[in-house]
Amino acid sequence: MFPKLIGNPLVALSLLLSLASCTALNNPIVHPPAPKLLPATSNPPSSAQESSISIPVHVDLSPFLAAANDDGVILRKIDHWGSVIKHPKGTEYRYYAERDDFVMTPSGTRQANSSPSSLTLHDWWKGIELSSSHIFVGAALRYKIGAHPFHCGEGNEWPRKATVQGSIATELTPTYGLSASVASVAVNASDACQIRVGDLDVSQEVKQRLAEIVRGGLSRAVTRLNALTVKSQVEDAWNTLRNPILLEPQAWLQFNIDKVRHSGFSGASPVIDDTIHVTAKPVIVFGQEPPAGDTALPPLDTPPTSTGFHGAADAQLYGTLPTTLANRLTPTGFHVVTDIPLDYASLSKTLANRLNGKRVVTKDYFILITNAAIFGNGGNQVVLRVDFSGDALGHVYFVGKPEMNLLTQTVSIGGLRYDSETEAMVQKAVTWLDLSTFRDLIASESVFGATAATDRMRGLLATTLNRALSPSVSMHGTVESVQGIGAFADVKALHIRTMSDGTLTLTVIDKP
Description:
Structural class: alpha+beta
Largest sheet: 7 strands, mixed
Shape: rod-shaped
């Protein structure tokens, strides 16, 4: 009778549906509950590194040079030709000298705008301990000397040529004022007189007298320097850096400034330069605007010594700092630590695209992955849900913790394992499924690149580090590298901790 029933199309269709229904009913169904949320834990503390924010400041030495060139401060003509000087050893001599204007000179070079009669300053300062930054001034001299029966530089021989060089020790005080004193003065002759009377070197005696006269004048002129200050420039920058900077809605750059150092003066013109280094621990935070810092400008953290004059080439220090003790004590470079959130919806879409359609086959059975998602579960743990059909129906849950691979700049799910209730249910209902193969497949595809986070970070900084912060303060920065250095998860997002390296300089416009 059964064969006759098959010949009836309606009966045959009914029989096939019935058989399919029986087969589906025999397929195991796995629907474990979602893992319970873990207690909330604080995000790992930031490993913010100390950074250096460079602030070039400028000091105008014109008042000092004006005083040095004042004939009432340092004589232009020193005339002892008509009045004989008697040395304690009994030798009588006379001399006459006149000078040009003092100008600032780089160490070890010919003085700026000098005439052919000027003398190159050689190594007269060697052996002198320079305990602070120095600036150098010099002027051309013409002179003559007479000591009976000898003379030089007189008549057709006039004039003999020389230079007078002065070294001015300069330093910034803890209150950002300039402190200066005369360190040394020397007179050097390009065509020296050779006059000796007995055991007295008259030429050397005259040079020493000229040096003492100039030293006294420079000591009077240098008082103009002690009235100068860079405090307003530094204070303007400091007060600006205390405020968080809006990068984009709900994203803020906070500098967390700490202390202030400086490099040492450089330059060879009336305006000399120094670089102030503000030490900071900058971070980028997301959410509401963080409070501004309330710390007033601290005293300048002055190093015990610095390596002195750097030369005109170091005057502008955007990105390259001279090697001084202050630089060695101050962190170099600008480093920003940021936790970039990656939303689970986007990560789930990426994971689903990778896994959908993949099969896990065991002998004559298989399962087909139909969907996948990732979400936070608290306690720095993520949960992966994988849906499947085939010879078993349902979904499973995997748990693990995000881990950053610094070499490949990827985030994987470390220690990926089945949730305990999932594992118990699968082992009971789907006895033929190879759990290790299934888990290894999910682990191999659950790897996310840090590029999205680092690209976002680079974009934020590229526009932020080059803009005006106020009418008188602007930033100039570079981003040299951005890389992921860690990963952690909370319920809302998977966070990639990034470290950005570069440079940052603040330009402060002097207020009128």
